[in-house]
């Protein structure tokens, strides 16, 4: 009988030792999509966004790249301010236990 039948994907990722890495990558992709959508919704070009953030277009491209995981909290805060938003972070109880 297959030992993984009935287990969830989070448990599998934890068994593989990559849960936190995969979760961080997923969060980064969501953040990149949220910022890109806000830019479209508010008609802000990449050049204008970089100007508002007081950064380079290359830095903005890294922020919007869902596969680039080296983004600082300071950069996220600047991006949020540039689109008229603020960052809100919360910690929630985990439904999973470390393996």
UniProtKB/TrEMBL annotation:
<protein>
    <submittedName>
        <fullName>Fis family transcriptional regulator</fullName>
    </submittedName>
</protein>
<dbReference type="InterPro" id="IPR010982">
    <property type="entry name" value="Lambda_DNA-bd_dom_sf"/>
</dbReference>
<dbReference type="GO" id="GO:0003677">
    <property type="term" value="F:DNA binding"/>
</dbReference>
């Amino acid at each position: 009988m297959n030992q993984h039948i009935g287990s969830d994907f989070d448990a599998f990722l934890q068994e593989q030792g990559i849960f936190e890495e995969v979760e961080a990558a997923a969060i980064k992709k969501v953040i990149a999509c949220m910022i890109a959508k806000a830019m479209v919704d508010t008609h802000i070009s990449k050049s204008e966004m970089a100007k508002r953030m007081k950064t380079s277009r290359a830095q903005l491209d890294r922020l919007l790249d869902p596969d680039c995981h080296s983004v600082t909290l300071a950069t996220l805060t600047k991006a949020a301010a540039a689109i008229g938003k603020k960052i809100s972070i919360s910690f929630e109880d985990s439904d999973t236990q470390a393996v």
